[in-house]
Structures are given as structure tokens and as C-alpha cells.
Design brief:
Shape: globular
Helix content: 40-55%
Distance between the termini: 59 Å
Strand order of the largest sheet: 1-2-3
Bound molecules: s-citryldethia Coenzyme A
Structural class: mainly alpha
Number of helices: 18
Length: 430
């Protein structure tokens, strides 16, 4: 909805009226679309700190109040009452499913978990110690080589099939990468199992003996996938939107999102948190590392702290911290000291003036790695776990972007600070 406007007057007195659009909730936006045409200048916002890239109905975040809603439902309520499969339906379709709709969606996902058998050959080509994120982005990108029969981005049925394949097949690809890393045989998915139970058996079962699925582990995974499912226009989601805006096939757009997520400033932080906790070692070393994090001359940052949007607390971190307690108490794991160290680090940082002044609180990545380790998942797989949860969010945003009748290719401009025009100098005269 468009309300009053901002009037911009240039230094030489030229006026431009910039419309203001307001959404359901949250900050309004100033539409600067005609700024260059009327004033000959660009806006400038490196990292897009104050820039809205699109209109979206999917997820809302309030960084000051620590609010996160998927399609209007607070994440706390979904974490308490829903399931990851139901949240996938909600994010993809905009409404909670009826019982029949949920059964049908669950059946569709369960019956699309297998990969084209030829895709398994990719894993024979990777080094045994290839990083699972490298394998995930490569194999997801290769889906456009296998499923080219359903990549008409303007065909709604193709868009549905793509969405089901991404949700259904990512755990299978992730488990295959893990099995390669540990030298065990790939375990096929089973349609009789629920989403997280199936993933656990693909990760941890072996042909040599029966595997008993721990319900606490399945419950913890389901919660973590819900909490990671979407997060507005974060770096990886914006990457998927930008890649998809050129009309590239959706599998390639998702593969681009996986690559963006891998960075330690983004989804790679959960892996970096555990490495940091190991490096800190024990509580006596916390002051030294907090001091490093505050030192402007030291590139070290406290992994799992801070957020571009949340300047109060990340509601996901609070929920995950509570699940940490439950998992470590019930599964019993020698990582309890690691969890204790994380709790102590959190308390020290939250009392420190620097972290208070800069609104640096634990984010979603601070505790998730401790749960993953308690479930027996290695650090190298942590960002893969993030990708499995976030894939449905990427897919929902890609669908929203591609269905936008006013959509156009994303092509930002720049402030040029390079050399002025100059003439070529032959190499003998340089
Ligand atoms: C995720 O966008 C999303 O929604 C992401 C995500 C999602 O669900 O998709 O929530 C998932 O990526 C969570 C973030 C995981 N990353 C980390 O935990 C890495 C550590 N955090 C930092 O790298 C940082 O906090 C960011 C990248 C998360 C946010 O950085 P911003 O918003 O660009 O803020 P900034 O870098 O400008 O920092 C503001 C100030 C700076 O100091 P000054 O220059 O103002 O003096 O705070 C400092 C920073 O130096 N700071 C930190 C810090 N994070 C910011 N100082 C020490 N330790 C930190 N962790």
C-alpha cells in the first residue's frame, strides 16, 4: 500500500517526490525507482543495511523485539506445535494444511526422496575428505542436468515438482556426502519413515546391523529444521532470488544459495562456533577471547554472536538453548563441558559493555552445533544441516520471485571510484 511521500530536493533545488509503501507490519519503504531518472544519482547502501530488495509475504522479522514469523505464525508456536513437514507446506503454500493436505504433502515428500541412480556416481569422483558443502552444492546443481524435463519456470506444475524434489532429496544428498566422508556405504531412503527419522537412518545405519532411531534425536532435528527454515532476505536467500531473477533454472539458483550459506559470516558460523569453543578450551580462557573479539586490530570475532537484524535477541537461539539442555540431559554426551563453556561464554559476553553497546547477542548458530554434535553429527556437516532446513525457505522465495508479474532481473548499480578515462600505452613505452 502506498501512503504519503518523501520529498527530495537536490542541492540545485530540483524536487522529486518518492512514494512511501507500507506493509502489514514493520518499517515502511521509500520507493526510489525513479531517483536516477529524475535526479541522476543512485542510492548507496553497501551490504544493503537499510535497503528493501523486494516485497514478500513469507517471513517477518523484528530485530528490536526478537520477533520471527513464518506466514504470520510466530516461530515459537510452530516450534511448540508443528512439524518441519507442516512448516514446509506453510512456507510453500502460505497457509497451514488441513489433515488431508498434510497427509498428501507428506506422502509426496516421502515418495520423492530417492536420487536418480546416476547421481550417486558423482560421489565416486569426490575425494573421500571433500567438504560436504562442496558436494551438496555440486550435486544440487547437477539436478538441472537430470531433471531438465521440469524446468519451465513459468509452469506452476513444474514449480511444484521442483519444490517437492528439493525438500525431499536434500537429506538424501547430504547423507550420501557424509557416508563418503566416513567410508561407509550409501544408505537408501525409506518411504515408511518420517522425514527426520529417515534422515537419521541414512546418516547412521549400516547394512551390517539393525539401526534403532532415537526419538529424542528425531525431535531435536525436526525442531532445528523448523528454526532454520526461513529468515527473510538473508544473504543466501537474496542470492537465490538474484540468481533466479535471470530466469536461470531453480536447481542452479538453489545451488548458488548453498554456496552463499557456506560463508563463516552466515551459515558457516555454526561450524565456526564449535571450532572457537574448542580453541577457547575452558572458562579461564574466555576473557582472553572476548578481548580479542573487541580488539579492532584483531580480525577474530565471537562466532555465533551478533546479527544484522536482531539487535535484542535471536528467538531461535533461546529455543535452541532449551533444546540443548534436553538433548544433553537425555542423550547424555561428553559434550556437556562444551555446553557449559558455551553457557559461560554467553554470560560473560552479555555482561560485557562492548557487546551490550553493539547489541551483540547469541544467534541461531551459537547453540545449534552443540546439539548436532550430541546427535553424533560431525562439525563438517553442520552447515549442511542448516542448508537442509533453509532449502524450503529458498524455494518459497524463488517461487514468490518467479511468480511476481512485475519481477525483473536484479542488476544493482555502483559508485565508480576507478581510474578516469586514459589512453592505451604500447608495452614498449610503459
Ligand atoms: C546467520 O541474515 C540472516 O538472517 C542470517 C541468519 C539466517 O538465519 O539466515 O540469521 C543466519 O548468518 C547468523 C549470523 C551467523 N554469523 C556469525 O555468528 C558470525 C559472527 N557475527 C558477525 O560476523 C556479525 O555479527 C554478522 C555478520 C552476523 C553481522 O554483521 P553486521 O550486521 O554487518 O554488523 P557489523 O559487522 O557491522 O558489526 C557491527 C559492529 C562492528 O563493530 P564497529 O565496526 O561498529 O566498531 O559489531 C562488531 C563489528 O566489529 N561485531 C562483532 C561481532 N559481530 C559484530 N564483534 C565481535 N564479535 C562479533 N561476533
Amino acid at each position: 500500500m502506498t501512503t504519503e511521500a518523501f520529498r527530495l530536493t537536490s542541492p540545485d533545488g530540483k524536487e522529486t517526490e518518492l512514494p512511501v509503501h507500507t506493509g502489514t507490519v514493520g518499517p515502511a519503504v521509500i520507493d526510489v525507482g525513479k531517483l536516477y531518472k529524475e535526479q541522476g544519482v543512485f542510492t548507496y547502501d553497501p551490504g544493503f543495511v537499510s535497503t528493501g530488495s523486494c516485497e514478500s509475504d513469507i517471513t517477518y522479522i523484528d530485530g528490536e523485539q526478537g520477533v520471527l514469523m513464518y506466514r504470520g505464525y510466530p516461530v515459537e508456536q510452530l516450534a511448540a506445535h508443528s512439524s518441519f513437514i507442516e512448516v514446509c507446506y506453510l512456507l510453500l503454500n502460505g497457509e497451514l494444511p488441513t489433515a488431508d493436505e498434510l497427509d498428501q504433502f507428506d506422502h509426496t515428500i516421502r515418495t520423492h526422496t530417492m536420487l536418480n541412480e546416476g547421481m550417486l556416481n558423482f560421489f565416486k569422483g569426490f575425494r573421500y575428505d571433500a567438504h560436504p558443502m562442496a558436494m551438496l552444492s555440486a550435486v544440487v546443481g547437477s539436478m538441472s542436468a537430470y531433471y531438465h524435463d521440469t524446468m519451465d519456470v513459468h509452469n506452476a506444475e513444474h514449480r511444484d515438482i521442483f519444490a517437492h524434489r528439493i525438500v525431499a532429496k536434500l537429506p538424501t544428498i547430504a547423507a550420501a556426502a557424509y557416508k563418503l566422508n566416513i567410508g561407509q556405504p550409501f544408505m537408501y531412503p525409506r518411504n515408511d519413515l518420517k522425514y527426520c527419522e529417515n534422515f537419521l537412518q541414512m546418516l547412521f545405519s549400516v547394512p551390517a546391523e539393525p539401526y534403532e532411531i532415537d526419538p529424542v534425536a528425531a525431535e531435536a532435528l525436526d525442531l532445528l529444521f523448523i528454526l532454520h527454515a526461513d529468515h527473510e532476505q538473508n544473504c543466501s536467500t537474496s542470492t537465490v532470488r538474484m540468481a533466479g531473477s535471470s530466469g536461470a533454472n531453480p536447481y542452479s539458483a538453489i545451488a548458488a544459495g548453498i554456496s552463499a550459506l557456506w560463508g563463516p559470516a552466515h551459515g558457516g558460523a555454526n561450524e565456526a562456533v564449535l571450532k572457537m569453543l574448542w580453541e577457547i578450551g575452558d572458562a579461564s580462557q574466555i576473557p582472553k577471547f572476548v578481548a580479542k573479539a573487541k580488539d579492532k586490530d584483531d580480525a577474530f570475532r565471537l562466532m555465533g554472536f551478533g546479527h544484522r537484524v536482531y539487535k535484542s535477541f535471536d528467538p531461535r537461539a533461546t529455543i535452541i538453548r532449551d533444546m540443548c539442555h534436553k538433548v544433553l540431559n537425555q542423550l547424555g554426551h561428553n559434550d556437556a563441558p562444551m555446553f557449559e563453556l558455551a553457557l559461560e561464554l554467553e554470560q560473560v559476553a552479555l555482561r560485557d559493555e562492548y557487546f551490550i553497546e553493539k547489541n551483540l547477542y547469541p544467534n541461531v548458530d551459537f547453540y545449534s552445533g552443540i546439539i548436532y554434535r550430541a546427535l553424533g553429527i560431525p562439525t563438517s556437516m553442520f552447515t549442511v544441516m542448516f542448508a537442509i532446513g533453509r532449502a524450503v525457505g529458498w524455494t518459497a522465495h524463488w517461487r514468490e520471485m518467479i511468480a511476481d508479474p512485475h519481477g525483473k532481473i536484479s542488476r544493482p548499480r555502483q559508485l565508480y571510484t576507478g581510474a578516469p578515462e586514459r589512453n592505451y600505452v604500447p608495452v614498449g613505452e610503459r
